[in-house]
Amino acid sequence: MIKALLRITLLLLLGTGLILLVEHFDAQRQARLQSEQIALQLDEIQGNLQQQFDQLVSNSEQLAGELAATPDLLHLLHWHPIIQSLSDDPAELTLSFTREYKIEAAFPVVGSEAVMGIDYFLSPEFMTSIRRAIASRGTIIDSKVTLRQTNRQGIILRTPYFSLKDGYAGLVNSAADLQIMLRKAGWVPEEAGFDLLIEAHSPQQTGLDILGDPERFRRSPEGPRVSVPENGYWELRAQPHDSAYSTARSDFIRLSGAALLALLIFYRLYKSGILAGIRSNRHGMALRTSVVLMVILPIVLLVGAVAWLSYSATQQAAERLMQQQASELAWQLRARIEAFFDVPRQAAFAVELFRNGVISPAKPEHMLSILLSQLRVQPQLTFLSMANTQGEYYAASRPPAGSDRNVRLQFATQETGRAMQVHWVGEGNQPSEQFVKGNPYFDARHTTWYQQAIKQDGMRWYPVY
Fold this sequence. Notes:
about 475 residues; Beta-Lactamase; 14 strands; about 50% helix
C-alpha cells in the first residue's frame, strides 16, 4: 500500500507540473501567434498608409505645378478632375489654396467654410511649417495638428508654388483626418486586438507622438515605417490588448487538467484496493484512511487553487484595463483643461488690441474679422463677443459640439433695430447675405455679463445665463 501511495503522490506532482508546463507553452504559442498576426496587420496598415501619402503628395504637386503655370486656374479649380474626385466629407480630405498667405479657395465647398479666408499671418502656429515649405520649394508635412473644419487631430501637407516673375505665389494645402486615414488603411480600433502607436521622425524633429502614449511606444517592439515628406517617416508599433480569450484558454487547461488528474488518482486508488480497504474498515479511521486523505486533500486544494488563480488573473486583467483607460482619460482631460485656461489669455489679448487701437468698435467689419481669426487660431474658443455703450452687440462664434465647426457672425445693432441676426461667413470673412433671425430685441446692456463687467471694472468669470 505504501508503494501505491507513493506512486499516487508522484503522479499528483508530475500531473501538476505537466498542467503548468502545458499552460506555459500554450501561452507562449498564443503570444507568438498574436505577434505574427499583429505584424501582418501592421504591414498591411503601413502599405495602405504609404499609398495614401504618395497619392496626397502626387496630387498636391500636380496642382501646384498647374497653378504655377496658370495662376488664373485658382478660380476654375472646381472643374479640376482631382477636385471632382473629392469626397463630400471634408474630414476625409480638404484641399485649400492660398494666394500668397490667404486662403482663397477650399474644397469640398460645403463643410470647408471654417478655413475660408484664413490669413496665415494671423496664425503664427502655422508659419514655421509654411516657411519650411517656401525654403525647401517642396512638399512638407505638419504631422500633428487640430483641423479647424472638424476640431479633430489630422495632418496637413503643404506644397508651395512659384511664379516666374514674383517668386512665391501660394500654397496647396491637403488636410486629412488621422482617424479616417487609419480606418481606410485597415485599422479599426473596435475590432483590432491591439492599440496602434505612431511616432513621427524627421530631420527637424524626432520622437513626435502622433497616436498613443509615448511611454507605451518605447516599450513596444519596433514596427514598419511609413515614408512622409521632408525625408521623414512614421514608425508604427502595436500594444496587444489583454486578451480575454487567452484567460479562457488558461482556465480551461487548468480546470480540465485538474479534473483529469483527479479522476486518474481516484482510479489508481481504486485499482490499488485502498478505497475498498476504507469501505471495509468499521473500527474508526485507520492509518490507511489517514494516508489516503493526505493524498486526496491536496487534489481538492489543487483544484481550488487553480480556480482561485484563474479568478485572480481575470480580476488583474480587468484592473489593468481600467487603469489604462483611466490614464488615457486623465491625459485627455489634462489637455482639455490646459486649453480651457488659455481662454482668459485670449480675452486679455483681445482687450489689449482694443486698448492699443488695433481694433475699434467704430470699425465693426474689421473688428469682426479679427475675432474670426482668433476663433480659427484657438480651436477651444467657441464665442467672442463685444458690446458697446449703446447696447450694440457683435459676436463671432462656432458650435461648441457636433461635426459642424463652421464659424458664424451675429450682431444686434441699431441698424438692425436691435434684432439679432446670425450670418454664415463667406469669403474674405464677410457675413453672408442670408441670415437667421434671433432675439427680436436684444440690448447688451441688460445682460448679466455686461452689468458684471461694468461693476467689476476688469476681467471676471460670470455665471451661465
